[in-house]
Amino acid sequence: MLAGYLPVLILAIIAVLFAAVTLFVSNFIGHKKPSEDKLLPYECGNVPVGTARERFPVRFYIYAMLFIVFDVEVAFMFPWAVLFKGLGLLGLIEMAVFVLILLLGLLYVWGKGALEWE
Amino acid sequence: MANIDVLTILPDLILIGFAFALLLAGAFSRVERQVNFNMVSALAFVVAFTVNWFQYGADKFGFYNMFMYDQVAGVFRFIFYGIGFLVSLMSEPYICGRIKHKGEYYALIMLSTVGMSFIATSYDLIMLVLGLEAMSLSVYVLTGMFKTDERSVEASMKYFLLGAFSSAIMLLGIAFIYGTLGTTNFGEVLESFKSGLGGTKPQILLVGAMLVLAGVLFKVAAVPFHMWTPDVYEGAPTSVTAFMISGVKAASFIMLIRVFVLGLQIVVFDIVTVIMVISAITMTLGNVCALIQKNVKRMLAYSSIAHAGYILVGFVALNRTSLGAIIFYLMAYALMNIGAFAVLALFQDRGNSLESLSGSGFKYPFLGLMMTIFMFSMVGLPPTAGFMGKFYIFKGALEAGYVWLVVLAVLNSAVSAYFYLRVLIYMFFEDFKGTVRPAINATPTAVALLLTSIGILYLGVFPQNLFELTRKCMTYIH
């Protein structure tokens, strides 16, 4: 009964072997000429100005969380907008309910004073 | 529109509406003006309960077969809304002054109840998981509601991490089930058993079922997934513990019944052999560990593990009597736990050691009497609901022929008498030390105490009607 899953096992073994072999071989036969520039952390081509692990105010986290809420909203709205005609009135109502709930969330955040930079 | 049928979840929608209203009211009003939030919350549960009352009876499908509202779901909604109502009533004196944002507290109680109700109504594994998450996420936050109390925050963190793991394990199991059967819908699962598989049982389906079982047993707090229980129940605010110990437990058991008796019937007998062993270990371990606890909340947490063991006996027997008895037991269990925790919450003590209760029984006779009823019910002495619950569970198990399991459970009940009655010994036979003082102006809590104690005595003396109802609603099995 488990024979049907044999290909999965073989694939898994091959994947692990492939990763292990490439890592090992490149480590073994690759040339290594480290220079200061090569060892710098990659920051999109700019010269790094300091460590990336800085502490920054906790207030940003609230904004990050709020951003997620509305980001997800858009991710949900795109497919709906593409299929707008097919979904018809029902889709419109459902989207209205969804946006209304998010709006209540925004109102709540506002009432709590989370939008103010203290 | 016919496939959607909003009526299947109408009471829950009402609760969601109330929850949003309370959230906004809490955000936009001053803290001093939020004294009546508990009443609003209680009202919401009364409305939801009433709506469910009128809906009860007819089977309905909704949201493209995502929900099935049948009688079992109806009965469990009664239980959940009742629990929410009682917890709303009893919370105020305990959280008052400790929680600033009461709107959030009551809204989370309501949203968590909605999650439980979704579990009881779900007809699809995905909907079940959504309900589970809605319930759990709210409870994680509620557990950490005392933001400045280390133990509360620690409990919340522990519960969240372990709960997230268990959900992940459960989802993995669902993925296996989907991989085997190509569907997550209970109706289609049953259909595929009949036609596609032709009576065979793929191994991988069993793997999936076991993983789902592990997720469910985590929520039930059965051995070996019980480790979080004492810490979380002790650290959480007492009113939240009452909510978790009764509501989450009831939701976990309907999840167990819904998944394995209604949906994956084909593997239920494989599951039962596992659960038989687990239930025996669970009740023994719960009772033995409860013997040595000095903290009342911790003792009740271990006792909840033991009770989970008893209820699992009902699942092992797997006949109509025993499954009906599970529902009955969950009702009784919810009543006595909410009552006991309401007394603890009224004392407003954060330590909850047994010594701190010394002499309080004679000093505050009403609370002493209430605690006596609840503890007698926990032991399972007649004429309380706890006795009838155990009686029906054991009856169902005997009908199915599990004599050794019943003997073990009865022996365990005898052991449990020691630590339940010890609470009463401290309350009545020790000198009052003045360590606890009940809150004043706690009429709603007193009402909740009266309701729970009357309910316990009523179910203990006239159990027949309700038991017939629970037995009749269990239509999944003949």
Main features:
heterodimer, A: 118 residues, mainly alpha, Methane Monooxygenase Hydroxylase, Chain G, domain 1, flat, B: 478 residues, two-stranded antiparallel ribbon
Gist of the model:
With 118 residues, chain A is mainly α. Chain A contains four helices and no strands.
What is the C-level CATH assignment of chain A?
Answer: Mainly Alpha
Unreliable spans of chain A: none
Output mean pLDDT of chain A. 86
Q: Beta fraction of the residues of chain A?
A: under 5%
Describe the model.
- The complex is a heterodimer of chains A (118) and B (478).
- With 118 residues, chain A is mostly helical.
- Chain A has helices at 6-29, 36-39, 59-82, 84-112.
- Chain A has one domain: Methane Monooxygenase Hydroxylase, Chain G, domain 1 (Up-down Bundle), CATH 1.20.58.
- Helix content of chain A is 69%, strand content 0%.
- The termini of chain A are far apart.
- The mean pLDDT of chain A is 86.
- Chain B has one domain (6-473).
- Chain B has a two-stranded antiparallel ribbon.
- In chain B, a hairpin with a 4-residue loop joins strand 1 (60-62) and strand 2.
- In chain B, helix 6 runs antiparallel to helix 8 and helix 6 (150-181) packs across helix 9 (228-235).
- The two termini of chain B are 34 Å apart.
- The model of chain B has no long low-confidence stretch (mean pLDDT 91).
- Classes of the chains: A mainly alpha (118), B mainly alpha (478).
- At the A-B interface, helix 4 of A face helix 1 of B.
Give the secondary structure arrangement, pairings included.
The complex is a heterodimer of chains A (118) and B (478).
Chain A: H1 6-29, H2 36-39, H3 59-82, H4 84-112
Chain B: H1 10-28, H2 37-55, E1 60-62, E2 67-69, H3 71-95, H4 102-121, H5 125-143, H6 150-181, H7 186-194, H8 203-220, H9 228-235, H10 238-263, H11 268-291, H12 296-317, H13 320-347, H14 360-363, H15 365-379, H16 385-399, H17 403-429, H18 443-461, H19 464-473
Antiparallel strand pairs in B: 1-2
Helix pairs in contact in B: 1-2, 1-4, 2-3, 2-4, 3-4, 3-10, 3-13, 3-18, 4-5, 4-10, 5-6, 5-10, 6-8, 6-9, 8-10, 9-10, 9-12, 10-12, 10-13, 11-12, 11-17, 12-13, 12-16, 12-17, 13-15, 13-16, 13-18, 13-19, 15-17, 15-18, 16-18
